[in-house]
Design a protein that fits this description.
Rossmann fold; Calcium-transporting ATPase, cytoplasmic transduction domain A; 27 strands; Alpha-Beta Plaits; seven-stranded mixed β-sheet; alpha+beta; 722 residues
Length: 722
């Protein structure tokens, strides 16, 4: 189990075994919600997982009891091998079922044409029983679990349909006046298992993004202990230990380089194919690949605190939440199975008592639907209609419509550097009218850098060497321009003014200029000026500013094209805010805003009746991110901001916001398409079955095809972002 504490909230992700349909997932979700302290619970059929939030720390036993009371089990961890074994078992059972069913179907056709195969009915009874009770044992088990826990699922319908078909064969063998549909039972199972096999394959394909992230997690690390290298399981590695990574190896932990220089492939984080040079004091992320040199890394984060684990956790949270439109599908599927069983019984009883009155209707319909059963036995036709109605009605497609689109879309979003933590944002994105955004760290990089100076490189090396001794952000920005370190003497900091130091016996001063007039053009732009004196003579100046992100202007223009009004809301002073706003094309600006006032501005725009998105990165943005209809946080921002957000941008800067809106729109579009076709399928198919116009085998094939269609349609989300 994965757990994360978020202020007063406790979050858990758990894997659940045994669920086969949306009704199973709904029952588990309902039971988890009943646990004392649970504020939110969502069970995802596509990923076979649950995500819950509680106001107290829940014990594993409490959750286990709730899940098992619904008839299912908790998997203690993600087990790739277990999934593969189940996948192979489904494939094996489907193959065996077809090996038995195909020759049986051929014999059934000959039997129907009058060419009776000796002992066919007895063979049918035995063979169909094998297919149903061996190949479909897991289906029957699932139906039984649902029954003893007082609910129904999709496997209930398959079990009822196939066993009823087999019973007709048994009755026919016992010379009772009922036509045998035994082979139909085997066909139902074979088609059902084939559909499950294809569905399982496609679901695995849709969820491969999170599996690929899990695959990046190292199992072992080379730890330096008492000057010796020891290979340890990753779970044994502790913070502040030293880990050695050779060229070609995957970096196992988050940490800081203490020795070595290398190129590191961080494409799984930033999508950039070009490796980054890493050297002493640089930060490295577990899961990235060391390419050229040996690195010694001091461990700073382990386990669930690591960047990769946090990404996986956030994606699981996203896949565990629900889009509001799914509530409609859930309500329908909860009642669907008992209603269908009732309709099947009603239609069977109707035809048993009225078949003679509608023989002409059936004969005429048979010219269009040649598979319609023509028989003089009321019993036989009633059972034929009952089986068809039960089988055709399985709303598997309805249950998969939303979670499959969500799983696929959240995986694609992760590859684009976006984590959609709250699925409600997917439905809300299409209605956003205002995008409120912080300046520092959102539109800009969030830290000062040198944008202009009039020094030679030799002079800059002296100045940068002096500033490298200070932890002030401006000093560190200047120190970043150092090429050759110089020996500095007698360094002194003058609070509020600057710093003095000696190089080659000459005093240097770096700090605020005495005369501001000549630098007014820079001050008017909200930029910072640092003046350098050598001896008593002015040597030159350095201009610093928080650079605007390269993609910010493009993102702002794209928002306008989407009819979304960009608004800057910042705590910075008016001059700086206006300069940045003008450069990127923002007209509405709120400057000098206090943290508590940001939420008020969000509410002001919401009062117009329009949806508001807020994007920021600081602790001061947390309340407004939570209060907005959609909160978007930058990954390099404060933890509180990220925890308060619905969407987290891992890379791409502000343009990630455009990706999130586009991906959300695509996901919601696919969800609506899936639900439309799933509803349409059941709405049209059930009346046909009740009228006796569908063959059970065709019904089962159509049901399986409907589920596969929904999954394939969900996979189309990928095509939108290639």
């Amino acid at each position: 189990m994965n757990e994360k504490k978020n202020s007063k909230d406790y979050k858990k992700n758990i894997q659940i075994e045994g669920m086969t349909c949306i009704n199973c997932a709904n029952r588990v979700e309902e039971n988890i919600r009943k646990i004392k302290g649970v504020k939110f619970a969502s069970v995802n059929l596509a990923t076979e997982s649950a995500y819950l939030i509680s106001n107290r720390e829940l014990t594993d036993q409490e959750i286990k009891k709730a899940v098992e009371s619904a008839g299912y089990k908790i998997a203690e961890s993600f087990d790739e091998d277990s999934g593969q074994k189940r996948y192979k078992k489904i494939r094996q059972n489907a193959i065996i079922a077809w090996i038995v069913t195909l020759p049986l179907s051929v014999m059934m056709i000959f039997h129907m044409l009058g060419y009776h195969v000796p002992g066919f009915i007895f063979l049918e009874v035995i063979s169909v029983a094998f297919v149903i009770f061996y190949c479909a044992a897991s289906t029957i088990k699932s139906a039984w679990i649902a029954l003893i826990h007082y609910h129904f699922n999709m496997d209930t319908l398959i079990t009822i349909g196939s066993i009823t078909s087999w019973i007709t064969a048994l009755f026919s063998y016992l010379n009772l006046p009922i036509m045998s549909f035994g082979t139909i039972g085997a066909m139902i199972v074979a088609i059902h298992l084939t559909g499950r096999f294809i569905e399982s394959h496609l679901r695995d394909k849709a969820a491969k993004e999170i599996k690929s992230l899990i695959a990046l997690q190292s199992k072992e690390a080379t730890v330096v202990i008492n000057s010796e290298e020891v290979r340890l399981p990753i779970t044994m590695v502790k913070i502040n230990q030293l880990v050695k990574v050779k060229p070609g190896e995957r970096i196992p932990v988050d940490g800081t380089i203490v020795e070595g220089i290398s190129s590191v492939d961080e494409s799984f984080i930033n999508g950039e194919p070009i490796p980054k040079k890493k050297e002493k004091e640089d930060i490295v992320i577990g899961g990235s690949i060391n390419l050229t040199g040996i690195l010694t890394i001091k461990v700073t984060k382990i386990g669930e605190e690591s960047f990769l684990s946090q990404m996986i956790l956030l994606i699981k949270e996203a896949q565990g939440t629900k889009v509001p439109i799914q509530a409609l599908a859930d309500r329908i599927t909860n009642w669907f199975v008992p209603i269908i069983i009732t309709l099947a019984l009603i239609s069977g009883i109707f035809w048993y008592f009225n078949m003679d009155n509608y023989q002409l209707f059936l004969l005429n319909a048979r010219e269009i639907f040649p598979w319609i059963l023509i028989t003089e036995s009321n019993y036989s036709f009633a059972i034929f209609v009952f089986i068809s109605t039960v089988v055709i009605a399985c709303p598997c497609a309805l249950g998969l419509a939303t979670p499959m689109a969500l799983v696929t879309g959240s995986g694609i979003a992760a590859k684009k550097g976006l984590i959609i933590r709250n699925a409600e944002a997917i439905q809300t994105s299409k209605d956003i009218a205002y995008a409120l955004m912080d300046k520092t760290g959102t539109i800009t990089h969030g830290n000062p850098s040198v944008i202009k100076h009039n020094l030679t490189q030799e002079e800059m090396d002296v100045v940068a060497s002096i500033e490298s001794n200070s932890h002030h952000p401006l000093a560190q920005a200047i120190a970043g321009n150092l090429k050759n370190l110089k020996k500095i003497d007698n360094l002194k900091e003058i609070p509020g003014k600057g710093v003095t130091a000696y190089f080659n016996g000459i005093e240097y001063f770096i700090g605020k200029p005495e005369e501001r007039e000549e630098y007014l053009p820079y001050f008017k732009k909200g930029q910072t000026v640092v003046e350098i004196l050598k001896g008593m003579t002015k040597l030159g100046f350095i201009i610093l500013a928080d650079r605007i992100r390269g993609e910010s202007e493009k993102a702002i223009n794209r928002l306008k094209e989407l009819n979304i009004t960009p608004v800057m809301v910042t705590g910075d002073h008016e001059i700086t805010a206006r300069v940045v706003a003008d450069e990127v094309g923002i007209e509405k600006v709120y400057a000098g805003v206090k943290p508590e006032e940001k939420l008020g501005i969000v509410r002001k725009f919401q009062s117009t009746g329009k949806k508001v998105l807020m994007i920021g990165d600081g602790i001061n943005d947390a309340a407004s991110l939570k209060g907005a209809d959609i909160g978007v946080a930058m990954e390099n921002g404060a933890d509180l901001a990220i925890d308060s957000a619905d969407i987290v941008i891992i890379r791409e800067g502000l343009y990630g916001l455009i990706y999130s809106i586009n991906i959300s729109a695509s996901i919601f579009k696919i969800i609506k398409q899936n639900l439309f076709w799933a509803f349409l399928y059941n709405t049209l198919a059930i009346p046909f079955a009740m009228l006796g116009l569908l063959h059970p085998a065709i019904a089962e094939g159509a049901m399986a095809f409907s589920s596969i269609t929904v999954i394939l349609n969900s996979l189309r989300i990928k095509n939108s972002f290639k």
